[in-house]
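Appendix B. Chain record.
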Amino acid sequence: MSGMTILSGLLGVFAGMASMQLWYKWQKRKFYKKAEHEAEARAKAILNEAELKRKEQEVALRTRMLEVETEIEERMAEVKRAEREVLKERRALQEEKESVRMKENELDAIRKRLEALETKKRAQIDEAIEAIQKSASMTKEEARRYILRKTEEQSKADIAAIVRKYEKTAREEAQKRANYILAQATTRYAGEFAGERLINVVTLPSDEHKGRIIGKEGRNIKTLEMLLGVDIVIDETPATILVSSFNLYRRAIATRVIELLVEDGRIHPGRIEEVHEKVLEEFEQKTYEIGENILIEMGLFPMHEELVKLLGRLKYRASYGQNALAHTLEVARLARVMAAEMGGDEKLAMRAGLLHDIGKALTQEMGGSHVEIGADLCRRYNEHPTVINAIYAHHGHEEPDSVESAAVCAADTLSAARPGARREVLESFAKRVREIEAVALEKEGVERAYAINAGREIRVFVDAGKIDDNEAVLLSKEIARDIENRAQYPGEVKVNVIRETRAISYAK
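Structure tokens predicted for this chain:
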């Protein structure tokens, strides 16, 4: 009995082991099957991802091909325009040659008539001599001298009249020709120059961002233009907007604000004001770093931090189209070399050259002469008397009292007179725009004034607590009248007086 029990127990053990082995094999097959499904799913995901990347690359390639085709078409259009211009110039040259040939023919005819008249005149003189000789009892030589004297007097009067006539004609023709040449040059290069000097281009990720920058009912773009003091141009150019202003510093800030807003994606009046404040702080720091790096490079430390900041600010200022910082560095280096050659203090000459135009960093905000502003700044921050003398002397307000001042004056003249360094047109335009802004800013109750649209429009923001709606109307007329009397400008200037009331509360 016990043997049977043991046998049955052993059989049970073997059966359990067999069932365990079967269960293990079943679990193993199940695991492998699951792993196989997961591997297939991952393989499909990888294939799908590769397909998506391939399609994205195809789209990017097609887009680039379209851009290249568009660029080629634009270049071909430019070539065709250039060909048309060349043909037009050739036709004009041919017409001019034809005109010259006709004038030569006219001159030949006139010369022949003059020769005939000269022959006739000699014959008439001979006849007159004989007549006078007979009637006045003169010798032939006396009669000849009398006739020649009278003829000379008459000829001088005739020649003077002819000379005056042809001088007047020559001046008129020269003026017409000069005006034509200037008009052609202006037509060809003014647009390119204005774009280069007065416009920043901001590239957008897509055209959808144009609508977001404009905002509902134009709220965003109005806020941007009011805060930044620039003109924002949104046209049909794909994924591109233009920031236009004569003030380089203001334009650079506006460009940075728009780029940050587009990058962030949140574009609304509140966010615009926040970003504007941050960018202002960023630019203050940036201008200080620019000035600091220049002083480190030239070995001119120490210098008051306000002067360092204003030195960096010159990067965003132009004088007659010449970048003020580039001009300043050029003058400083030239002055150092000249002072060294003349036995002066190189460091002092370089410092005076670096600060000779420092007042230009503030003229767009303060107005007035950059010489007086610069001298006052350097005097306030205890700069060397030679530096102050160089500031006055480089515009002839004082005589140079040292080798270093004389070197700065000479270096300033060399830098400004270098061919292509300066453009008078831009400076006169900027001066006109500043004059228009200054007229508005001197009125009571005016907080800010921005000239936009190439100086054809001015936006004046007033304190709503001091100016009511009726006074705003009168103020716009008064500013327009003062601009007419005090500023020089082509066409007309539109005066916009903007009165805004803002109420702010905080929920705590």
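Further analysis of this model is presented in Appendix C.
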